[in-house]
Amino acid sequence: MRTDHEPAGITVVLMRAYQRLLQALALVLPFPQPRKLIGAGALRTLPPLMRGRRWRRPLLVTNRQLLQLQLPQPLLQKLEGAGRPCQVFDQVPDNPTIACVEAGLQAYRAGRCDSLVAVGGGSVIDCAKAIGARAANPWLSCRAMDGLFRVVLPPPPLACVPTTAGSGSEASIAAVLTDQERQRKLAMADLKLLPAITVIDPELMLGLPPAITAAGGLDALTHAVEAYIGRSGTPFSNRRALEAISAIARWLPRAHAHGDDLEARLQMALAAHAAGEAFTRTNVGYAHALAHALGCFYAIPHGLANALVLPSVLRFSRPACEPKLAALARAAGLGTSQDSDPMLARDFIRWVEALNQQLGVPPFIASLRSVDIPRISADALQEAHPSYPVPRWMRRSDCEALLTQLLADGASPSDAWFQSIPPAEADSPPEE
Ligand SMILES: [Fe+2]
Fold first, then answer.
1. What's the pLDDT tens digit per position in 199-252?
2. How many Å lie between the centroid of ligand 1 and the Cα of residue 303?
3. Which fold, 10-29+208-419?
């Protein structure tokens, strides 16, 4: 189903058909449900569960900052007390690389481990997933497993303990890595990467600084938005995306302003998890494609990169998804029952911008250089096409113009500017 704005030709038709196929797969594939331990103090119930499942030698994957904050230590002590001392791998950087996964694999083998426990944010969880995939499939490199359903043998069991509310990686089938040599992201995506156990314990998030809370929350917001406005929504993903938006609108400002609010932390962790369950069935969109490219070029943290581009991507997409943006506005508690869809769509985009401002996200990308824009655009569109079921097709020139508007010395992105791009035909309404 092409829109007027999409380039004519067999390529776009084939890409849209491929996305339809992925949508159909998401409807019929059996997504394994992890055992979920939810609530303050839930982490304390993990060791007995691991014992019951006969995980004898787990590799604990984390990073140094978290070890310094003593977050994994109670778990380590409990496991040691239960006669299951952990091998610890704490070398995960902010954006995990292939080299980091290989180092983790060495630790896994050195400890003769049989399971994994990831304690950290999305980077740590993604790294643990990739270590498990490599351990079970030693003849397949990370690059060989880049893409959909390329993990052949099931990895060892994994428990995920997110310490931030954002990535939703504990709910997703994906592991995103940085291929430093090729200066690009690679993403393994396979049902086998879903964890066996997920622990959502808000006590672990009480000490997070506001900037981390904002970046994580805005990453979760982007997951929910892109899952919902994309063309591959399922009844389940649409429901979870709307639930996530409602919770983020209510609780993110509170978690940001009052980091010690246990209820706000729990609700944001659940919202990030819901958004993860949504996007792992639908895929993401241009905001993520741009965020990954910007992350590779300038090492901008993933959540912040998403937040920087999301309003512009929504303005660009709006002509093709106004009813869906209006539904998101209602979920966020905006507008009244009398407001039309176009009004609500506009209000939702303005609300995203206001939330960015409230959480300290600038309206421009300070590190963006105009000389890099062609390459960033090419990388982003290469990532997005053909898999991302975006509501409105973006040409290279659109992408370059969008980024130009985000230069620190560029013109302010505005509704008027985005309306100057020829409109696409309206998209179909949400599938619920
Ligand atoms: Fe993300």
1. 999 999 997 899 999 999 999 999 999 999 999 999 999 999 999 999 999 999
2. 6
3. Dehydroquinate synthase-like, alpha domain (1.20.1090)
